[in-house]
Amino acid sequence: MAAAATAAATSKSALRKLCIDAVPLTGRRVLCRVDFNTPMKDGAITNAQRIEAAMPTIRYAVDNGAKSVVLMSHLGRPKGAPDAKYSLAPVARKLEELLGKPVTFLSD
């Protein structure tokens, strides 16, 4: 029992979250896993709440000297092959609008 408790305590300490404001960002590439699984209709975003929720983190990285900010996400549940209806291109356009900066979009 004691060994299990020790292992659990070790696991918890090893999984401490690191906040973006605790890391020097100047000149670094920043990788963020974001939830941009936004509702869309006919290729247009119908609710940008999830994109807007990520903006403080993205802006923080940009404003604090990150060389680049790479955002990773998914949309919907594609069945093993790329499908245009699940493209994040509309999200990239919305990000450009919100950031006021160009966003490079890389497709699958």
From TrEMBL:
Listed GO biological process terms: gluconeogenesis; glycolytic process
Pathway of action: Carbohydrate degradation; glycolysis; pyruvate from D-glyceraldehyde 3-phosphate: step 2/5
Listed EC numbers: 2.7.2.3
Entry GO CC: cytosol
Enzyme class: transferase
Superkingdom, natural source: Eukaryota
One Pfam family, short name: PGK
Keyword ATP-binding carried by entry: yes
Record keyword ATP-binding present: yes
Record key words, sorted: ATP-binding, Glycolysis, Kinase, Magnesium, Metal-binding, Nucleotide-binding, Transferase
One Gene Ontology term of the molecular function aspect: metal ion binding
InterPro entries associated with the record: Phosphoglycerate_kinase, Phosphoglycerate_kinase_N, Phosphoglycerate_kinase_sf
Family listed: Belongs to the phosphoglycerate kinase family.
UniProt protein name: Phosphoglycerate kinase
Organism: Cafeteria roenbergensis (Marine flagellate)
